[in-house]
Predict the 3D structure of the following.
Amino acid sequence: MTRTRIAPSPTGQDVHVGSIAAALMNFAWAKKNNGQFIIRIEDTDRTRLVKGGEEKMLDTFDRIGLKADESPKVGGPYAPYRQSERLEIYKKHAEELVVKGKAYYCICAPDRLTKMREVQQAKKQIPKYDRQCFLNQEEIVKKIMDNKLPYVIRLLIPEGKIEFEDVVRGKITIDNSNLDDQVLLKSDGFPTYHLGVVVDDHLMKITHIIRGEEWLPSTPKHIILYQAFEWDLPVFAHISLLRNPDKSKLSKRKNPVWTSWYLDQGIFSEALLNYLALMGWSHPEGKEIFSLDEYIKVFDIKDIQKTAPVFDPVKLEWMNGVYLRKYPVSSIKYLVLEFYKKQKINLPEEIVEKTIPLIKERIKKLSDYLPLCEFFFKKPNIYEVDLSNKKELLKQIKDELEKISDWKANNIGESMQGLVKNLGIKAGEFFMIIRISMSGKKISPPLNESMEILGKEECLKRL
RNA sequence: GGUCCCAUCGUCUAGCGGUUUAGGACAUUAGCUUCUCAUGCUAAGAACACCGGUUCGAAUCCGGUUGGGAUCACCA
């Protein structure tokens, strides 16, 4: 059975798009193999905990369409799926390691550790815990018992080296001398990430860990933990991090990174997923546009690329436009209406429906709609071109349009073509004047059709 | 700085020793369609970081250099 997971930490206000990229691969791999995809909340850092973060994140996963088979929301056979509710489990396991001689108690004060590291750094040594407490373990344990001192439990890194196979990167070797005696259980009783992931991934029977390459350097520690517990190793696949244009890892300082920001812009979840799928992976037939179902069919973790991709919002928008054009008018109408309703703007349904065919090839995302179509709902108050010296021409246009009894786009077009011929003015210039008087803008949806939608009375008024 | 990872057009990528004048997509430029802007179609420019080696033959294998990135917490 294939079981994968995404384990977000609610230390941000929302899900990072990079997490969605990783979640997508986990999701696809689980589904492809008829397995389960799990969401686990890793909320062990109470100091950085963002209020409402977890709820928002879970909501974002719902919106994006990556449905978890097991999560804090839907529960599951290995509940709870929130680490803050599993404290006893971690403590028990940490203590088990102490009994096995694979971990030890430590009561060193933070400032001593800081100073120690500074000295090591100054001597150009690797900053590592000096094992003071390990060397006096009996005495330390007694101190803790007698005085009820706060303590941490540290992993005892054995000598030797760790070798493991990463699906994406191949064989990786690290000498244990580079590893620090990692804290496993904090003095507040919470586990550190390292204890938490290993224990939970094992207990929740996770078979494949597909996660960002930022975890590659700490994977040896995790493997040491698996070995200490005498547990089987899962398959590791470390995927490359999404990058800013300057190649640094995608960060909110340089780019919008929160997934709901894109969704709130009117980027479709399908388009976002499709775009993200192409970050570090490509369709075997070279396709750019494909559904989630198709992705699941053709995706393979063996095809994941090692190179770190730059996240390109321009291509994302292009792709969103492709999706938009593929949707039927009725769907776009609904999406536009809902999109603006969320912003407390209620648009008249009939007009929106009529305008969709005119603009679906002209907008790339839902938020592009109103800037282009606002003139359908209200008279423009800003005119991009000054028409005050064209009054006579406008009058002629108005007189001509008044004659039209059947107010249809093609009749309007014929009438205006006739007028422009008679007047002998450049067609482009002529129509631009009408365009400005109707929409206030130099760029608009097709004129005749727009005028039909506006209605005769309104058009004459605007002229 | 130590450790680890990475390296094909501006960007996403195909390529997995010869079929390659290195293919596609976004972006850019030009043209066609056209009442604007788009869409659509056509075309153009644009890349194997560098140096060695292996080989009859290297973008593809190996080594080094350079460059980029990640990571070194009682954060994840």
Summary: The longest strand of chain A covers residues 161-166. Residues 383-462 of chain A form a domain with the Arc Repressor Mutant, subunit A fold (CATH 1.10.10.350). The mean pLDDT of chain A is 95. The CA atoms of residues 358 and 445 of chain A lie 6 Å apart.
